[in-house]
Amino acid sequence: MICVFQKLAAECQSAGYSGTLIPYKCDLSNEEEILSMFSAIKTLHKGVDVCINNAGLAHDEPLLSGKTEGWRNMIDVNVLALSICTREAYKSMKERNVDDGHIININSMGGHRMVPSADEHFYCATKYAVTALTEGIRQELREANTHIRATCISPGIVETEFAFRHHNSDPEKAAAVYESMKCLKAEDIASAVTFVLSAPPHVQIGDVQMRPVEQVS
C-alpha cells in the first residue's frame, strides 16, 4: 500500500500541485503505531492543523452469525482509531495554539440509516458511532472555547476498493455494486472536503450527506 501512495506523491509533484504528499505506514488497529505516527509528524512537520479521518472498513459479519474478530476489527478501525487520531490531533493543535484547525470524519450514509442487508448491519453501527462522536467532538470543542471545527462527510456508494475488501470472497458481488449505477468517485469526496475547509471561519458545517443520484437507499 505504501508504494501506491509513493507513486501518487510522485504524480502530484509532476503535476505541479502545491504542497507535498508524504506517505506514512501505520496500522490503525494498533494504538502504539498511531501514537508513533503523531510523534513523527510532530518531529518532522511540527504538528497537525487538519485531521481527516478517512480509514474505514466493513466485514461480512451479520449480527446473528458474525465472527467476533470481524466485529472487533471494525470497531478498532472505524471507531477507536478515529477517536485516537482525533484526540492526538487536538493535542497537537492545542500545544501550538492553533485555534482554526479542523477535524473531518469521513462517515457514511450508513451512519444515518440502517442498510437492509445483514452483512452491513455491524458496519452501520460503527458509522452511527461516528455520527455521535462527531457531534460529541463539536460539543467538547465548544466547551474548550476553541474555534476548531468538527465535520462529518457521509457518502453513499463510492467506487473504490471498499466493496472488493468487504466481499473479498466474492469479487463478482463486489463488482456488481459498482456496475449497478454511476457511483461517486474519490474526487467527489475530495471536493466535499475542500468545500468544508473553505467555509468562512464562523460557519460550522456539521454533516455533508451525499449519494449517487441513482442510489435508492
TrEMBL record:
Superkingdom field: Eukaryota
Keyword Oxidoreductase appears in the UniProt entry: yes
Gene Ontology molecular-function annotations: 3-beta-hydroxysteroid 3-dehydrogenase (NADP+) activity; estradiol 17-beta-dehydrogenase [NAD(P)+] activity
Any one Pfam family match given in the protein's UniProt record, by short name: adh_short
Family per record: Belongs to the short-chain dehydrogenases/reductases (SDR) family.
Function: Catalyzes the conversion of the 17-keto group of estrone, 4- and 5-androstenes and 5-alpha-androstanes into their 17-beta-hydroxyl metabolites and the conversion of the 3-keto group of 3-, 3,17- and 3,20- diketosteroids into their 3-hydroxyl metabolites. Exhibits reductive 3-beta-hydroxysteroid dehydrogenase activity toward 5-beta-androstanes, 5-beta-pregnanes, 4-pregnenes and bile acids. May also reduce endogenous and exogenous alpha-dicarbonyl compounds and xenobiotic alicyclic ketones.
InterPro entries xrefs: NAD(P)-bd_dom_sf, SDR_fam
Enzyme Commission code(s) on record: 1.1.1.270, 1.1.1.62
Signal peptide, first to last residue: none
Keyword tags: Oxidoreductase
Catalytic activity: 17beta-estradiol + NADP(+) = estrone + NADPH + H(+); 17beta-estradiol + NAD(+) = estrone + NADH + H(+); a 3beta-hydroxysteroid + NADP(+) = a 3-oxosteroid + NADPH + H(+)
Keyword presence, tRNA processing: no
Protein name: Dehydrogenase/reductase SDR family member 11
Organism: Etheostoma spectabile
Pathway as given in its UniProt record: Steroid biosynthesis; estrogen biosynthesis
